[in-house]
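Tutorial sheet, problem 5. The four components below are modelled jointly, 1488 residues in total.
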Amino acid sequence: MSELQDTARRLLDEGLVQVVIGWEEGPRGARPVFVTSAADCERLIFDARCVHNLATFLNPRRSQITALGKAAVVVKGCDAKAVAGLLREAQLERAGIVLIGVRCGGVAGEPATLAPPALSAETVSARCWGCDVREPESVDMLVGEAQPEPPVTADLDERVAALDALSPAERFAFWTKELSRCTQCYACRQACPLCCCERCIVEKTEPQWIETSPHPRGNFAWHLTRAQHLAGRCVGCGECERACPVGIPLGLINRKLQQVVYELYGYTVSEDPAVPAPIGAYATDDTQDFIE
Amino acid sequence: MTLAYYPGCSMHGTSREYEESLLAVAAALELGLTEIADWSCCGASSAHAADHLLGVALPARNLALAEAQGADEVLAPCAACYNRLSGAVHAVAEEPGMAAKVPEVLGRAFANSVRVLSIVELLQGLAPVIEERVAARLEPNPLEHLNIAAYWGCLLVRPAAITGFDDAERPTGMDDVISACSANPVSWNMAVECCGGAFSVSRTSSVLRLSRAIIEDARHCGADAILAACPLCHANLDFRQSAMSLRGEPPMPVLYITQLVGLALGLPMAALGFERHFVDTQPLFARLAREAEKAAAAAAERDAAKAARAAAKAGAS
Amino acid sequence: MSRIGVFICHCGENIARTVDCGAVAEALREHPGVVVAEDYKYMCSDPGQQLIKKAIADNDLTGVVVCACSPHMHEKTFRRAAAQAGLNPFVVEMANIREHCSWIHDDRGEATAKAIDTARTIVEKVKHNKPLQTIRIPVTKRALVIGGGIAGIQAALDIADGGHEVVLVEKEASIGGHMSQLSETFPTLDCSQCILTPRMVEAYQHPRIKLYTWSEVEKVDGYIGNFSVTIRRKARSVDEDLCNGCGDCQAACPSRRIDSEFDAGLSRRPAIYTPFPQAVPNMPVLDREHCTLFKGRRKGLAKDACGKCKETCLKGAIDYDGQDTFVTEEIGAIVVATGFQLYDIGREQPAGLKGYGEYGYGEVPDVIDGLQFERLASASGPTGGEMLRPSDGAEPKTVVFVKCVGSRDPEKGMSYCSKICCMYTAKHTMLYKHKVHDGRAVVFYMDIRAAGKGYDEFSRRAIEEDGAEYIRGRVSRIFRDGDKVKVWGYDTLSHRQVVVDADMVVLATAVRPQPGIGELAQKLSVSYDQDGFLNEAHPKLRPVETNTAGVYLAGACQAPRDIPESVAMAGATAAKVLGLFSADELERDPSVALVDERTCIGCFNCEHVCPYGAIEHRDVCDMEGHVCGHVAYVNPGVCQGCGTCVAVCPSKSVELAGFTDDQVYAEINALAGW
Amino acid sequence: MSVVNQPQRSGERAPDDSGRATAEFEPRITAFVCNWCTYTGADLAGTSRLHMASNVRIIRLPCTGRIDHVFIVKAFERGADGVIVSGCHPADCHYTAGNYHARRRFGVFRELLSFLGVDPERLTFSWVSASEGGKWADVVNETIERVRRLGPFDSYHGLAGAATPADDPFARFEMPAGATGGTAAAPADGHDAASQAPSGTGDAS
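Model answer (structure tokens):
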């Protein structure tokens, strides 16, 4: 991936940025890295194991990172959409960052492997299903060779449809079982590039809208709120689900809401920060079949 | 997309030239019309006056048949049929209970799924195709010299609620077709006035008065002919014309819209049934042909002169 | 710690009949934080209020709950009472146990249970009520009037005479509006110009009125009492200080074939022109769209194609290079008086409108609209007041007037009644008959709507004294027939078709709001109806106010209005403005949103949803004072307290006073397990 | 279906409910309504003496735009079997657009709830204007009947397992916090009081 390394080196050499946020080879597979010197640029890699959404590190409240100075960040399609989200919500200034786009043909479900796996229906990450970005458009520079479509994997939509087909009671049983495992560790929140509040609603105690004790009732409140707050914002990068230590299929909820905002308001999340988010905008003729 | 064809009584009777020209045009444009098997009367113009349900059910039967033979659109060239069929579609869709009652009285399924097309809608949609074909023609085109008044009558665009494909007071669709045929639409005042319609027999005097006003206004506004899209209108304007003492002006030919399109497509006159008209169309076409030739000759002359000048220049240098 | 007093009203029998008020008091006495709970026959009565005041004093209450009728009924009453007893009025709430309980249930047990729940819910809420202070904001005592028609002129004069400065903005080159185009006015037939011109001059010369003609409102910032309005002064190409209005430039202008707006297209004007002789200010404007010189410049010609007016002007007042300029005015209140236009049924129609092609307007020269007829009848008009028709200048012997063209016609036009047409058509028939004594005036009408002082008498006069022929029915078609105009109509009284061979036809076309009203409404954040007329705050009780505080409506921008009504509305807006200006500060309900800057991350979701533009950006600085971020700030002067921002704030960093999350949470909690 | 076995609703009923002691299940409906249209419409229902079932408790807010999805979640947590959200008709919003924003948020949230297994039948969204007292009565009665058919929402109430508010009838109320706090006016009181009843699961008892 010398093209990526050279680009990074040039940016640092010319002092255009002080840090390049990318991926490196770690002891247990690919991991994020913060390169601050041209010499270290050789550490930068990009392959199917680079699943982490690096936009997360652009959250302006990560002071230890902002302290490093102006950042260039390596972005796949899903990462670029997340950056657009941060721009849309005035969390970043476009001029304040450099985006190095990588052509991406899908990533693996599991980054912790010593060699990049051959992408197959088994190994590819579920998040890549239906991904429409082979090369991000909103970037300052683009590296890597053209990539094929990711292999077809288990269709998220099919799994959502399967749940939709159940009765509410059955769905409730399903989610009660899933959510009962939640310990409200908030890893899903930390991994999410768009969950960037200073003080999350769950940490607001006056009043305590969301019960923090990890019983299913508090967990329902938490996941309902997390999902609602991400409705029309979630880019489907799947990091929340990957981060979840107890394996709650959050991807299903996120996907469902992506479908809903599309069906109701024709909205799909894009790389263009100028497109207003569906929640917070409205049309006078919005659907209201559900209103008596 | 299959297009069913509902002839109605006139197309097989008083207005055979309308059907002949329609089928000729349909063949030329490869429309694949399939006549509705076992079609029956649309009820015009008495059924709806006698009983509302009857007035809906009669046309609905034919729509149901069209449905059954897998059509999504039905062409009703006769304005009265078009009006009744659209009326039925509207009634079944809008009136409470109708959707249930109609299949019941028909004794057959009716989903009200077919769209009713008027001849004008159909041809307006094909205008670009027609234009192309006209442009492709080489020989001098007499139609370029034809000033013709588009006559809609009352049934094609009224009531707006059930027809509504064009403005009820100032429709423009037929003019589009005329222009596509390279003829010149005339701006006049009687386009949507009544010709007397079904009173042709019962109160002929009224029909003569009304139809005559139409013909006079057309002439007054500089039309060589009137374009009709309704058998009844055509009958009143064409067949009754001799009975209107027209102060000795030359008679006013009345063409069917399909005949005009046929001419534009270059189909043989014989195939378009002009000989069936009461007002002879030959003098008009003869005149147009002469003018076309004159124009062609003049053009040729100009070209020759230009060529000569060019040659002279070339020789000089 | 909360010390709440609960006061249960019997409302005579209204509540007590179905709710056991004693039991409610009993239950509430047990309720945590409640120190006193009493029931009484009429809490809103004077002894009832005394009882509450005494309880407040005796028990040193920190909150009061009155269980009685709807807060819409008596919240003010009880808050006032509490205030008199020294308690902050905003810690007083009402539990609605009448409209929402005793009146809609008959089972005494159920009703009582519900009343107790409701009372407890509100008690829990009140525990979190904060004492609030009424918001006071300063008022800039200058008014902006948009539109220099009769309504705008009247409003400006009234406010200025009231002692305050007024900025009057008119988009045309002269003030006067439509009224200056009218010949005579109903129901008195006095000359429009004669009564209007003095008012125009008065406004122009008024020491406290600043007049901007050929100008438009570009941008409106701020809020009631504190607007900042940017005005675009369109390049006039004539220096207003140098020009003495001699008119030489107009005589010199070579392009003279431009339709005159003032004569509604019935006469021609040069490219540099004064709209009409009595124009105020009496100063020309250069119409750059039609000017030969500017046409040339647009084509990119090397040297200017003309320059006659500049050569002729002895004062050197002509300036071809002037550009639009912008001025910003500090304003306290805004009066919108942008007036109307007539529904042009001829040309291209906006979405939803079909026009009336069958009436031949715009194609048959002798088919004109009401305003054109005013010009034909006007002594200052293209015919010098002689009744001559446009096509050939002949005197029309038969004139047909058609009313309700585009009005009261949901099918093709407007569903509403344009209101002024009945009267001006009656006037037109008179003006016509007074000029053409042997002429026929035929009127097609749907109804004669002549409500108003002297109006019916007036229209009767048209029929009975001046012999206008009124035919009740609509017209189906109007077309040219030789040098005649054929009118086909129907008489619905005698049920026969009517055909009139007219020499001229006058269409009373519908009254519509000015073009561009939508954009202006958005600048002012005033709502408008489906027809584009601006919405008043309340159709009966607040007819000249809008939902945007400090913005008022005068004249036909709100609905079709005649002159007396427009003038009356103008006076009303002036009264509102002067009332607003009578105090140095104005008071506002303190139920507004407040941002917690410690936790706001400046995503500005709140800004996107705020209907009032009350959200501002505030810089956050680090220790060294460098800007390190932005947070939202709610301008309490602008905020109306809807709370939409609160609901969309992901981190719950916005609160709405009076309806805080704490309060709602407590209410929901209080309902648990009822 | 119920994941956690629940005590009978009768055992759960707070003592002040004497009037509702009936074998049949009586749904509890919490209604969040806007101040200008629906609340006033409900007032009109009252002044018109339109009788309706008594299972609805109204919480008044300035505008549907103020209504947050967490209100609904909390209402279910706190024992509601159904929830009504009601405000001004489109274009009638006192604040011009609050209802439009609410319409979008709840259009999405309703789907989300349903996806997580909360039967949308338990939720009523409606536009009720100040002049629609009759419509309000219908909305109330229809919602109650619908929820009555669905039965108690124990499955949700019971998610927390053992402790339910009803075990201690006063658990849900802010208790006089003995020593702490000054006057209700001082922010301190409101705060520590609220923090005392974070979940209402009887911590105060």
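Marking note: Residues 108-126 of chain C form the longest helix (19 residues). Full credit if you identified this.
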